[in-house]
Amino acid sequence: KLVLVDAQGFKDGLGVLQYLPEFIIKPLLEVLRSVPLRQSANKMSYFNKDNFATEDALKVGRLHCFKEDWISGNLTFIKAGGFSVSESISGIGQPTLVIWGDNDEILPAEDKFKFVDAIRNCNLRIVPECGHVPHLEKPE
Question: Is residue 134 a contact partner of residue 103, using CB atoms and an 8 Å limit?
């Protein structure tokens, strides 16, 4: 079985970003790991912001940004053009469960239905009063 949790699958590539020179991309990556941007993403991730968009959640959400190879790894990812998987989704053959927070502020709401339309044996579970991370916010 395959379980997709608020998955990004229908936004292919990175547009013009992959063609920008490194001296422009590196400062953008610094912004990406900045406290204000991460705090905004932290708040967007949850429906119940008071309980989940905490200072601890912000710290955990930024941990990967400080790995030694984070900048170089992201540069490689960007230069490669990012993910392009939307055309492959219809080829998923195993039973698939898509779990989606009904109040996801990060991904387009219509994407949850695109998975159901594209995957033959797919069930959708919409989690009410839940944001982008239902596995954390509503694990039950």
Answer: no
